[in-house]
Amino acid sequence: MVTVIELLYAVSTLVFVVAGLTMVGMAMRAYVQTSRQSMLHLSLGFSLAVAGAAATMISAFLTGFAGPRSLLLVNSGLTTFGYLFVMYSLVTYE
Question: Which of 14, 18, 48, 65 meets the CB 3.0–4.6 Å disulfide criterion with 82?
Answer without folding.
Answer: 48
